[in-house]
Every structure is written in structure tokens, then in C-alpha cells.
Amino acid sequence: MHDDIAEILFTEEDIARRVDEIGAAITKDYADCAEEGVVLISVLRGAAIFMADLARKIDLPVEMDYMAISSYGNGAKSSGVVRILKDLSSQIEGRHVIVAEDILDSGLTLTYLLKNLASRRPASLEVATLLRKRTRAQAKIDCAYVGFECPDEFIVGYGLDFAERYRNLPYIGILKPEVY
Ligand SMILES: O=P(O)(O)OC[C@H]1O[C@H](OP(=O)(O)OP(=O)(O)O)[C@H](O)[C@@H]1O
Ligand SMILES: Nc1nc2[nH]cnc2c(=O)[nH]1
Ligand SMILES: [Mg+2]
């Protein structure tokens, strides 16, 4: 285990098992769309690792697309004032879209994203989030697929960073408070 990690919450094996299950559920739920397939969308950068693994567990035609958004204002992350830095490469009108997120925390990122994507009139729009934080102040967001509930701590690994580090840890853990 990395020296900066206080506790491992989900091991590499836990994550692989859940990603496998979510991929199987999506394959089953979208069986009627086997012809046109689904579009997976992830928000850079944290969710790219989850989406890359999830895509390989969906047994349907899958397109992958990416958006980069930035919160700004007072400088705190996910301030709710969001700007698109990189838009999707493809049109999603009439398509079955699944947003792959690494973590749902305050919910401000997904609130903005879902509103933005819905305005493009996809045939359907759902969320697959690997983690949903147990926190009181969370926007109400319907997630069709949730990997794990996690405690209200600052967590890193498997895509999740602190100051751009720890994204490449194969597991998810709580960062030692003295590190940040
Ligand atoms: O529910 P919220 O409070 O909005 O937080 C969740 C968002 O925060 C993280 O992204 P971040 O802004 O750190 O960017 P990153 O993916 O590049 O690390 C994470 O990847 C989610 O997208
Ligand atoms: N790395 C990381 N990014 C986040 N974004 C929102 N919540 C978190 C968290 O707990 N850890
Ligand atoms: Mg981050």
C-alpha cells in the first residue's frame, strides 16, 4: 500500500468485480438496442479509467466520447459554475447515452452535465457512477448504476486524484489527512 493512504476502501479485485457486474447489467438493460448500441460519455479526467474498464465489460456496440469541463468562480472545485473546455466529438441526438462518472459527491458536476446533455435530445440518458459519497449536501441525481457507496472522506485512486497524483493507484483508498 502507498505510504500516503490511510485505508484501502476497495481493492483492485473489488473494483473489477463491480465493473464486471455493471457491464453485465448494462448489456442486459440495453439488449433491445443491440443494433444501434450505446454511447458512453465520461468527464475528463477522473472517470476515464472507469469508463475504459466498463466499456470492455459491455457486450453491445459501444461508442466512447469525452467532455472536459471546468468549475470556476471562487476557485473551489465543482462550484456549480461550469464551462465546457472540450465538447463531445459526436452528436448524441437520438442515441442511448450513459454517462460514466468516477464519483458523485456534491452532484454539481452531474447536475450541470445532465442538463447540458439532455438539451441535445438523446433517446435516453442514464448515469453509471462507480462511487456515490454518503454526504448530506448532495444534489438529487438518479443513477441507474452505482458501484459502491463510500464514506464522506477525501478518497483517491483508480482515476481519482489529489493535485493530479494517485490516479494510477489500482485500488481506492482514503488519503492521509496530513498529505493535504
Ligand atoms: O459531485 P461533485 O462534487 O461535482 O464531484 C465529482 C467530480 O469531481 C471530480 O472531478 P474533478 O473536478 O476533480 O476533475 P478531475 O476528474 O480532472 O479530477 C470527479 O471526477 C467528478 O467528476
Ligand atoms: N479525488 C477526489 N476527487 C473528488 N471529487 C469529488 N469528491 C472527491 C473525492 O473524494 N476525491
Ligand atoms: Mg480531481
UniProtKB/TrEMBL annotation:
- Stored InterPro entries: HGPRT, Hxn_phspho_trans, PRTase-like, PRTase_dom
Q: Which cofactor does it need?
A: Mg(2+)
Its Enzyme Commission number(s) read 2.4.2.8
GO MF, one term, reads: nucleotide binding
The primary site where this protein sits is cytoplasm
> Which CDD domains does the entry link to?
PRTases_typeI
Pfam families named in the record: Pribosyltran (PF00156)
Where does it reside? Cytoplasm
Q: Which GO terms describe its biological process?
A: GMP salvage; guanine salvage; hypoxanthine metabolic process; IMP salvage; purine ribonucleoside salvage
Q: Which Gene3D superfamilies does the protein's record reference? A: 3.40.50.2020
| Catalysed reaction equations from the record | IMP + diphosphate = hypoxanthine + 5-phospho-alpha-D-ribose 1-diphosphate; GMP + diphosphate = guanine + 5-phospho-alpha-D-ribose 1-diphosphate
Keyword set for this entry? Answer: Cytoplasm, Glycosyltransferase, Magnesium, Metal-binding, Nucleotide-binding, Purine salvage, Transferase
Q: What is this protein called?
A: Hypoxanthine phosphoribosyltransferase
Instruction: Give the family this protein belongs to, as stated in its UniProt record.
Output: Belongs to the purine/pyrimidine phosphoribosyltransferase family.
Its taxonomic path starts at: Bacteria, Bacillati, Actinomycetota, Coriobacteriia, Eggerthellales
EC supergroup of this enzyme:
transferase
List, for all copies, the residue spans of the domain called Phosphoribosyltransferase: 16-162
Single GO cellular component term: cytosol
